[in-house]
Structures are given as structure tokens and as C-alpha cells.
Amino acid sequence: MDLEFKDCFISLWERYFDGAEFPIIFYYTNQEGCGELVQAPSTGHQCFIGVLNRVRKGQALCFGAESFGCGGAKRYLGYTQEMSMPNFEYFLSCGIEGEMEGERYKKSPEIVRQLIKNSPQFEAPGNYIVFKRWDKLDQIDKPEVVIFLAQPDVLSGLFTLTGFEEVERESVVAPFAAGCGSIVLYPYLEIERDRPRGVLGMFDVSARPYVPKDTLSYAVPMTKFRSMVDDMDESFLITQSWAKVNKRIKGSDKF
After folding, report:
1. Half-sphere exposure of residue 62, counting CA atoms within 13 Å on the CB side?
2. Predicted confidence (pLDDT) per residue in 89-146, tens digit
3. Quick one: 71 and 181 in the same domain?
4. 186 found inside a domain
């Protein structure tokens, strides 16, 4: 990690998003010891988004293939290609009477089958995925995606900054995905695009209890994030319009 860039962003963030929570980052690696290795619970389900709250509080965490207490997270982060449960198309839609209650996120099992068929196949490019808060980064870290968990005022700034140098209107997308997919899989896939987009997420109803009620996510590849940071001092962030919003951000509570 370029520590000069790290400190530059911190300075700019505190100037233009005064009081807002620092983002977290992730990267894949084969190196052990970059963070505390998470152990899967011996029994029961463990939401990946809930575990990430420890990173938001400053702890560096590392996940491997055996770290997940949720089959969906294991798949979205690339450590398995298998579905998390049998009859998943019924689980995500109408359920099976007397056997399984459906989440009703999709109207029918057939829609879910098509969704799965068209979903990207992703294999983790490293044995581990490391998550750290921005201010805890060291020189050995190599961030690939930056993730913000933020309130609407902060998101409005990130959204607008993403499109500052773009001609296309859709410089930010919001794909249907589990909470973990919206902050890991889809922003990671954006790395390969000529013009990487930001990804808005955390609309997953199942993940909502693990973040504050006024919080959504925004994630962006590091390549795009660097250009966004470079643009901050000449963008709308220097205007009086943003100063009014920044004043309100300063008065909001941190996580």
C-alpha cells in the first residue's frame, strides 16, 4: 500500500466527509497472517456481514475456505461453486409447503433458476481474503476494492464523485445480490472493466439487521477509487452546496 496515498485520502475524507466512518478494503492473497483468521461456528448460521462489523471497529480479519458460517458468503467470495442449500430456487421464492418457508425475493422458482444460470462464476484468486479498515492499512497490504458502509448524505457524495469524469450515466450500479455479493463479488468483477463502476448495495433484507437502519453500501475497485480521490479537490466537494451536506454529515453518529 502506498502510505502517502493512504494519508492523502484520510486528510481529504476528514475535510469533505467530516465525521463519516472510514471505509474498509479487501484483497485476496496466499499469504497467511495478514489478519486474524476467522473460524466458522461449530453449529448454526453466521452472517458474514455481521462478522465484518469487527473490521469496521478496527480489527483486521482474514477469511479462508473454512471460515464461513454461511454457504452463500462462501460462494459469493469464490470459495465454492456449489449452491448453499438444496432447493435453493424454492428458498429464494415461494418455498415448499410443509417443508420450507420461502424468502419471496423472487416471484417463482423458475425466475431463480434463470438468475442462477446467468450469474457470474467466480473462483477466489487467493487462499485468503483480507479485510481491513482504511486507517489500519500497512505497507504490505494491497487493496483491490474499497467498501463504504454509509448514510445517504455520504452515499450522495460518493455517487456523484464516481460520475465526475464519466460520460455514461450509469457509473454506479445496483445488482440483485446478497449483502456479501454486493460488496465483494460484483465490485471485484468491475476491476476487469475498461471503466470500472461503483456498486451500491446492502439491499438484501436478510443482511439488513446486521447494519444500522440508515446504512447502505458502496464499493468500488481501487483503480477507480484512486481517480476519485485525485478528483476530490476540483469537484463539487469544494462548493457551498456540498458544505451544507458536509455540515450535516459532521453531526451524524459514527458506527
Report:
1. 15
2. 888 788 898 888 888 988 999 998 998 888 888 999 999 999 999 999 999 999 999 9
3. yes
4. yes
The residues, ordered by sequence, that sit 6+ positions from 87 with a Cβ below 8 Å of its Cβ are 96, 100
> Could you tell me if 61 and 35 are in contact, meaning their C-beta atoms sit under 8 angstroms apart?
yes
- Tens digit of pLDDT for each residue in 235-251? 999 999 999 999 999 87
Instruction: Please tell me the total number of residues recorded for the chain in this structure.
Output: 255
Identify whether residues 245 and 228 lie together within a single domain.
yes
Number of domains in the chain: 2
Grid cell in block for residue 122 = 467466480
**Pair 10, 77 in one domain:** yes
| Half-sphere exposure (Cβ direction) of 104: Cα atoms closer than 13 Å | 1
Question: pLDDT tens-digit profile of 11-62?
Answer: 999 999 999 999 999 999 999 889 999 998 888 788 999 999 999 999 999 9
Give the domain range for residue 243: 3-81+121-134+145-250
Same structural domain, 51 and 160: yes
Residues 148 and 206: their CA atoms lie apart, in Å, by 19
- Whether 8 and 110 have beta carbons less than 8 Å apart is answered as no
Report how far residue 135's alpha carbon sits from residue 133's, in angstroms, rounded to the nearest whole number: 6
Contact 52, 77 (CB under 8 A): no
Residues 149 and 37 in one domain: yes
94 neighbors 100 (Cβ within 8 angstroms): no
Phi and psi at residue 83, in whole multiples of 5°?
-70, 150
Q: Strand 172-173 vs strand 24-29: parallel, antiparallel, or unpaired?
A: unpaired
DSSP conformation letters of 47-62: -HHHHHHHHHTT--EE
The pTM score is 0.92
